[in-house]
Amino acid sequence: MDNLDFLKIAAKSFVKYLMTGARSNEKLKILHGALADDLYKRLGKPYSISALGYGKEKEEIISGRYMSKTVDITVSANDEQVAGFGVKFVMSNYAQNSNNYFESMLGETANLRAANKPYFQIFIIPQKLPYFDKFGKIVKWEIITNHNLAKYAALSKDNTDIFFHTPVKTFLCILEFPKCDERKIINKKTFEKFYLNLGEEMPIQYYAPNLQFGNAIILNDYNQFANKATHYIKSL
Question: 93 with 144: CB under 8 angstroms?
């Protein structure tokens, strides 16, 4: 799976989210399944992958230093778990959850890496996304700025050999969806209708912020991230 393929998978996952709702895991099966399949093709035998949408379509539980954690994608070799991947695709209401996303990422990473389980993160977010109130009305449109991304830029410069709360590698993907007329897209219903009409073939692009990232984070380059992650796993 190259970078353009990844965009197509992101579009399919987004459309499935619109069709099935936030509580359904159908969108995860598309995204996690495609990632798991690609990782297996890159790793080959004796590795095996567990994830929703792939193989037995089941997530695995990895024992951490402090607690066990259900992991989105687990890599095993000869029946031994050797690495995990966390995947997050944010589709609305980013601001109210921004710090929680980041803190959860740090906590789950530290828990697993402190137990000698290499852990990687994939964080996907649109550059512009709606903020819905409890009635489904769009209160505002949130734009991801350098201020929002500053904590990721700081994380990207961590020494991963020292800081176990930092993923071995993080793929940060910022997506630019087709623009809509915000005067007409006023609630969840009109938002869903607009993008469902575009369908899975909607043109999604990568959005590059004017911000420098260190080696721990790979921005908008899935192929590079997957190459580095699988090379690391094979070197264990």
Answer: no
For residue 12, give the nearest of 80, 89, 123, 69 by alpha carbon.
89
SS (H, E, C) 150-214: HHHHHHCCCCCCCCCCCCCCEEEEEEECCCCCCCCCCEHHHHHHHHHHHCCCCCCEECCCCCCCC
Phi, then psi, of 75 in degrees rounded to 5:
-105, 130
Strand pairing report for 60-63 and 80-89: unpaired
Looking at residues 173-192, what average pLDDT do you find? 96
pLDDT value at position 22? 84
Structure tokens at 199: 């369908």
Q: Cite the DSSP H helix spans in the chain.
A: 3-20, 26-43, 98-113, 146-155, 188-198, 222-234
Q: How distant, in Å, are the alpha carbons of 28, 140, 191 from that of 196?
A: 18, 21, 9
Cβ atoms within 10 Å of 41's Cβ, excluding its own: 12
Distance in Å from the first CA to the final CA of the chain: 23
pLDDT digits (tens, 9 = 90+) for 32-81: 999 999 999 999 999 999 999 999 999 999 999 999 999 999 999 999 99
